């Protein structure tokens, strides 16, 4: 029997929240719990509001569409639905949910079924520097039976073709690898690199696997499988052909036991050709060691103890850096941000050679444009990588610079992204967004963040000519930016945007630090004085930044964050002191908006600004972000945009449009001030 003690260290909760349903939530009840979040295509969640009814609530893909994934248990012949059984078989009962908690890598739910207690631990490893472990496209579900009376216990679990992106035409297969049993479900005839309207991959395979000696398996109509388990506690071993109402299932017989014991399942989504990079197929880094899926998932299950041990250390570290940076509210925010950030990023190698010396990383602009390696998305994400895995910055930027150095890209400024639709990194489309100052500054920031965090100058050396070109572009065009888009493209194209000029000034100072050419640093500081001290970009009294030179309203300026992070002093201390006094005066009902005309704010830039201010202003930003995360108004995976004031049918504190974006790495901006590259 494949079993183990759970072995999950639960960190000291910053608060315990009890509700009328008798569920205790720790540290808070988030908008949505990550269940299996490992890539843009393995991204399963459950809304916090559904946890009290976990036995009868579906997992959801990040877009909100339902995924079939169930857990059922028999205790002395009585069957209890533990998770995901929306249509309970006749004669079954629903377990009672008593506890729900999350750390940076685990979402854990405790349920009572008759005389026994079960813990469902959804564990998505985050291994910042172990590329094989991080790139394995699987996640764990461990079901632990707590010690109790001597009961006969069996555990069942199934999935279906909702994990493949469509349910109209699929096939499945069953194989073994050693003691591991593996089901794979795939669509029929889907084009490589294609997605459905919800952003699910239509090519590749959904994978469900487990191992054990007292294990039975079956595939076929889902009602047949579940009724068989209800009546017998086992499955038949028959593997019928796929049907539209079908599922694949496992059943573990734990026997009659009073002891604590557990079974672990692996769920995943495999695409052997995972990314199209300029016409060359990329594949997951893990395939350099485990080329075939059954071997890969068998290794993943065998790696549980090591992966869980590492996750405990990471959970402890996130708790520690959050608390030491700004208390338990901040650590709650960071813990919920980790899986979402790394789950939007994939590490790859060439599919033909499997050469690990040619490693790249790709990030998806989830839920907005769906672009691939959007430079401003990498910029929003970079603080977490700066702290935990700065080599990711090089891996993400290398494909961007390689594309910009090709004949396909001829602009004098940095590109916005390298493909309109993930996973197609086939080049910037002719009608794609252009952000000349924005992205030219961002690539310099990111190159220096990698260099400063690692001490390695290899990236800047390799791409020195391009970096100089973009620095020169900033110097020629940055102080008085022409009408153009900035990172917040919802604002439209504007001329003389203060935040873009700030980016150019800090970008030039950063380029000076990157290369040692202090002439650029001098210009950056001169511009900083003009923008702030000479009031080019501020109100007449120098209390706040304006959205455009000489034009109200005010704007939440976050582009001087790298000035503080890199200790450049491009802007005087007074710029930071004054804005710390100003921002609390323009706070909306639930937070500070992006500018004086909007009713919504973005957690990315609130987090960046929280790192640039101190005292009451910092407390305000962190408290507002925590309150938004825990207010119970939202069900989407942690959205980085929300209403700070009521708007139409929306209440203050409700999320706005976005969900599950990897840009939550921005929440680590304050923690990054304490040091880089701290994970080993």
Automatic annotation (TrEMBL):
Going by the UniProt record, its keywords in alphabetical order are: Signal
Query: Any idea where the Glutaminase A central domain is?
Result: 327-670
Q: Has keyword Signal? A: yes
Q: Which PROSITE patterns match?
A: PROKAR_LIPOPROTEIN
Please state every residue range assigned to the domain named Glutaminase A N-terminal. Answer: 105-320
Q: Where is the signal peptide?
A: 1-22
Q: Where are the transmembrane segments?
A: none
Q: What domain of life is recorded for the organism?
A: Eukaryota
User: This chain belongs to which protein, by name?
Assistant: DUF1793-domain-containing protein
